[in-house]
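Try this one yourself first.
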C-alpha cells in the first residue's frame, strides 16, 4: 500500500542562501541599518517591489506587522471602522485592534469569498477602510470591492499573506489596493520562518510606514524612496520597531527565483486533486472566479449533505486513511472560526459564514508533491466520504 505523503515539511532553502548567511555570521552584520549601503533587507525590498511591479516595498517582522503598519500609515482616526472578511486568520482582526481600529466582520459565502451583498450593506455604514484577506489564496470580487470603496473614497488594504503569485485580471495580487501585505512565515510561499513585506505606490504611505517600522533618526535615508515625503514626518510618528533581520532577508532572496515553479506546481496539484474530489457526490471544490489565476498550496472543499456527526466521521475516516483534514468550524479553538475571536468583545452573528465553516474542509497540498502523493490524497478523501455515506448509487442501472 502507498504511504501517506508528508504534507508538513517545507522545501529546503536554496543552497545559495548558505554563502550569504556565512558572510553575515562572520561579519555580525545582522541589523538592516548598520551598513552604509544596500543591506540584504534593502536588496530584498528592491527585488520584491520590482518583481511585483510596485514602486515601494518595506520588509517587516510579519504580515501582521505589515497590516498594522498599513492601517497606522493610513492615519485613520482612533476607533475607525475597518471592514474585514469574517473568514480569515485571527491575526487579521488582531492587527486591526492593535492599530486602534474596530473590525467590522463581513459575511463570506460558501465559495470562501466575501459576500458582496453584505459587503455593500456594511460599506454603506460608518466605515473608514477596507481590509481584504485573500484567505487561503481565494480572491474575492476585487473589481467590485475596489469600485465600491473608490466610490466612497476609502482605501483598500490587501492581506495577500497567503496569495503571493495569484493574479486577478492578469495583475499581481497585492498591487490592486492602496497597499498589499505578504508573509514569510513558514507555511507561506516564501519561507523565512517569520517575516513580512508591504508594497505600495503611495509615497506618503511608504514614508510613514518606513518611519513607524523603526527607521529611527535618519535611517529612512537608506530607503530608495522619495525623500521629500519624510521631512514632515520626522519625530512626529511613533517607532514601533518591527523590522526584518538581514538573516531573514538572506533566506528569502534566493527563493524569489523559485516563485514561478512553486506557483505553477501548486496550481497543477490543486486542480488535479480538485477534479477527482468533484467526482464525488459528497465533495465540492468551488471554482475560482473567472478573472482569478490561483497559487494554492492547500485545497478547500465543502461536504455536501453531511450532518455534523457525519462531518466529524468523515474527518476521522480521512485521518485513518492517512490524510489530515481540518473542518474550520469543528476543530477546537480554530483561529479561523470567528466565534473564537473572543478578544473582540461583541461578536456578531454571521449565519452564512458559520454555515460555510461547518462544512468547509482544509487539506495541505504542498507544491513539491508528486502525482502518486496526489492520487493518495484524492482517493483517500473520496473513499473517506464513502466510508461514512456509502458508495454513491449508480444511476441508470
Ligand atoms: C499567515 C496569514 C497571516 C499572518 O501572517 P504572519 O506573517 O504570520 O503575521 C495573515 N493573513 C492570512 C490570510 C494568512 O494566511
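Now uncover the answer:
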Amino acid at each position: 500500500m502507498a504511504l501517506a505523503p508528508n504534507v508538513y515539511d517545507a522545501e529546503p532553502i536554496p543552497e545559495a542562501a548558505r554563502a550569504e548567511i556565512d558572510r553575515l555570521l562572520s561579519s555580525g552584520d545582522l541589523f538592516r541599518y548598520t551598513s552604509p549601503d544596500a543591506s540584504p533587507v534593502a536588496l530584498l525590498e528592491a527585488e520584491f517591489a520590482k518583481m511585483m511591479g510596485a514602486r515601494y516595498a518595506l520588509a517587516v517582522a510579519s504580515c501582521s506587522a505589515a497590516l498594522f503598519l498599513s492601517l497606522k500609515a493610513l492615519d485613520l482616526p482612533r476607533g475607525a471602522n475597518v471592514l474585514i472578511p469574517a473568514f480569515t486568520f485571527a491575526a487579521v482582526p488582531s492587527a486591526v485592534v492593535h492599530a486602534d481600529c474596530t473590525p467590522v466582520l463581513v459575511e463570506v459565502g460558501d465559495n470562501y469569498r466575501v459576500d458582496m451583498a453584505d459587503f455593500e450593506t456594511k460599506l454603506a455604514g460608518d466605515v473608514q477602510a477596507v481590509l481584504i484577506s485573500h484567505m487561503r489564496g481565494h480572491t474575492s470580487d476585487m473589481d467590485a470591492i475596489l469600485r465600491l470603496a473608490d466610490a466612497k473614497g476609502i482605501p483598500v488594504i490587501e492581506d495577500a499573506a497567503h496569495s503571493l503569485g495569484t493574479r486577478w485580471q492578469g495583475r499581481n495580487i497585492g498591487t490592486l489596493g492602496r497597499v498589499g501585505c505578504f508573509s514569510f512565515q513558514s507555511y507561506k510561499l516564501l519561507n523565512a520562518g517569520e517575516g513580512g513585506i508591504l508594497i505600495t505606490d503611495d509615497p506618503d504611505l511608504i514614508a510613514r510606514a518606513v518611519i513607524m517600522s523603526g527607521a529611527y533618526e535618519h535611517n529612512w535615508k537608506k530607503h530608495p524612496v522619495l525623500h521629500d515625503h519624510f521631512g514632515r514626518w520626522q519625530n512626529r510618528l511613533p517607532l514601533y520597531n518591527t523590522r526584518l533581520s538581514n538573516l531573514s532577508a538572506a533566506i528569502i532572496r534566493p527563493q524569489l527565483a523559485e516563485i514561478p515553479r512553486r506557483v505553477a506546481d501548486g496550481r497543477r496539484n490543486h486542480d488535479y486533486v480538485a477534479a477527482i474530489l468533484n467526482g464525488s457526490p459528497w465533495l465540492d471544490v468551488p471554482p475560482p472566479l473567472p478573472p482569478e489565476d490561483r497559487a494554492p498550496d492547500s485545497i478547500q472543499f465543502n461536504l455536501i449533505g453531511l450532518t455534523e456527526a457525519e462531518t466529524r466521521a468523515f474527518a476521522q475516516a480521512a485521518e485513518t486513511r492517512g490524510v489530515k483534514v481540518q473542518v474550520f468550524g469543528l476543530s477546537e479553538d480554530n483561529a479561523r472560526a470567528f466565534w473564537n475571536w473572543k478578544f473582540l468583545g461583541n461578536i456578531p452573528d454571521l449565519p452564512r459564514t458559520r454555515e460555510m465553516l461547518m462544512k468547509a474542509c482544509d487539506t495541505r497540498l504542498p507544491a513539491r508533491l508528486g502525482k502518486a502523493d496526489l492520487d493518495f490524497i484524492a482517493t483517500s478523501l473520496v473513499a473517506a466520504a464513502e466510508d461514512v455515506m456509502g458508495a454513491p448509487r449508480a444511476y441508470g442501472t
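Discussion: The mean pLDDT is 96. The first strand starts at residue 56 and ends at 60.
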